[in-house]
Structures are given as C-alpha cells and as structure tokens.
C-alpha cells in the first residue's frame, strides 16, 4: 500500500468492509434492538404476558450488545487495527462470510426467542433459537480469526508501541469468544426448557452482558480512546499507567464476576463488581475526558462548544454513574444511594456510554474512512440532544418502573434513539440518500436539480 493515496486505499474491498459492519449494526439497532425494547416497555405498560416480555427484553439486550455495539466495534477494528499497525487488511471474503453468519444468527435470535416464549410455532422457534446461537458462534469466530491474523503479522517498525492496545484487543476478543460459547449453551437451554420456554437462564444472561460490556466493549473502547480522543476531542495525553491499571481491573473483575454469577458465588461476584467499578473510574481518569482541553494554535474555539466533544463527555458521565452503581452494591442495602438493579446498570452502560460514544467517535471515524466529511456538521447538536434524551428516558423507567410517567418516558426513549441512529447513518454517509430526498434537503426541487 506504499505510495497509495487515501482515496485509493479507502476504495479497496478489504478496507471498505467497515461499511457493511456499520450498516448491519445500525440496521439491527434500529429495526430490532431499539424497536424491540420500545415494544417490551409498551407491553409491560399494558399489562401484557410477562414471559413473552422477558424473552423479548433478553433478545433486545443481546442484539444491542452483540449486534449493534459488537458489529460497530468489530467493523471499526477490521479497518482501524491494520492501519494502526501498518499491515495488510484482513481477508475480505472471510469478513463477509463471518458477518453474514453472525448477522443471520442475530436476526434469528430477535425473531425466534419471543415466538418460542409466546408459544407460537414452538418446534420451529426452538430449532431456530439454537441455530441462531450456532451461527453467532461460527460467524463471530471467523471475524475474530480474521482480526487475529492482522495481529500476527509483523507491524511496521517505526510505528509507536501498541502493547496496551494489543493487550486490550486480545483480551476483548477472548471475552467475546467466551460469551458466544455461553450464548449457545443459553439458547440450547431456552429451547429445551418446558417451565420457561424461550428464556435464557438468568445467570447465563447476566454473564453474557458482563462479558459483552466489561470483557469485550469497554477494554477496546478505552484502548481506542487513548489513541483517538487527543486527536478528535483535544483531550490531554492519556495516562498510560492508569490506563493499564483500568484494563487490568476490568479483565480481573470480569473473570471474577462472570463465574461468580454462573455458579452463584456471592463473594466472587461482589469482588468482581468492586474491581469493575474501580476499573471504570480509572479508565475515565486515564483518558482525562473531564480535564481541561488542549488549546490549538489555529483553533481557539472552546472544546465545550463542540457537540461531538460534549457527546463523548456525557457518555463518560453516564459511565461514571455506572461505576458508582457497581460500587454502591458494596454498601448495605439501605445505605446505597443507587438502586441495585441490573436493568439500570446495563442501560447506563449500553444506552448511556456505548451508544453515545459510537455517535461521538463514529462521527469522526466513519466519514474519514471513506475520505469524506460529515454531511451536516450542525446535525451533531441533534445527536447530542436525541442521544441524551433517550438515555434519560430509559433510566427513568429503570428507576421507577411502577410510575406511569416513567413508563411513558421509557417508551419515548426508543424512538429518540432510533432517530439519533438514523441521523447518524445519514450524517456520516454510511448510507446514502436518493436524488429527490437529497435535493429536497438542499432546498431544491428534483427537476431544477437536473437542469
């Protein structure tokens, strides 16, 4: 690739694979993840069947973590890591095959699990649920293999050392593989259960979420943030020792919490939660998101007037609340200021941190991958508003599920998030617009645009 222009590099099929991951992840989030979450809230408000709603909520959470966030992370990594190390990109055919299998598995999951819990086409739904777990494991393993191949290639010698980044990526991918294996066992149990058909056992469901967030997504997010935040958001240089400590605490905390949940060992789980809470706070401090921003000689604007910088900052604000929620579990039940709710924890991490971080960092990364700029730079203010409205609404439902107002705020959260992701997809040019829509937004009629 030596001597090639950025446009030529971006046009290579192996380096354009990120777009397919982004489209698949956003489609799953909008059409399956947030839509199913909104439906689950509305059914609960209407007093619908609890077993069906629980299955839908489980499928919603799984698709959001391993579909939306997982595919966005893997897609960016397939493009970002080879460039960072100065090596050739992964095999595009292997990536396409892995993405197709993984996407098919996730699509089957969001359809089959609620159908099985609702007693509709029971045998077919049970079979489809097991197939979904199998497809996810096979497809995800192919993607991990493709990414691992780029790590095995010798990097360019003049590149900066990437030990912390590589370690975070390797541990994240290992947690991802472990989660997909547990997921297959969970879907098998849900398909075979006669007492609660379609429901993945609570210990397996909790372990899956913990591995997805703390083992896979957060370490990679911290490591990538250490490389991109100073460039995108003018943060101070990251603190390497504190960052390494954060990644170590997340890894050890996940190793303790996931088995502690699976085998119902209270001290193991509590120790893991304490380490995870400390790891989150250490990661935030290492990235210096809340510290004064670096001034730039040619750009005297305040970083606090940048909507994307504010998105990243608010994401880490929600993450800090998740850390406090974890550490609050060490206190006596009546002494804790934060409710001991897994639903609250998962949505602080998923809606509050991961989604807002994707909106902030993706608005910089994705247009750059294709050698373009944001379609509407000022639309980032709308992303900031819609994203945080969605988080606040969903957390209101988690904090007070019995309150009617909180229920309706929770129902509004889904459409707000869907609107934010659709705007994000258009603004970053991940998806295009047809001629009539494009000209209408530009203030011209389709006919005059062709004159």
UniProtKB/TrEMBL annotation:
The keyword Cytoplasm does not apply. Keywords: Membrane, Transmembrane, Transmembrane helix. The chain crosses the membrane at residues 21-43, 63-82, 94-112, 124-147, 168-188, 208-229, 241-262, 274-291, 303-326, 346-367, 379-399, 405-426. The keyword Transmembrane helix applies. This is Uncharacterized protein. It comes from Thermalbibacter longus.
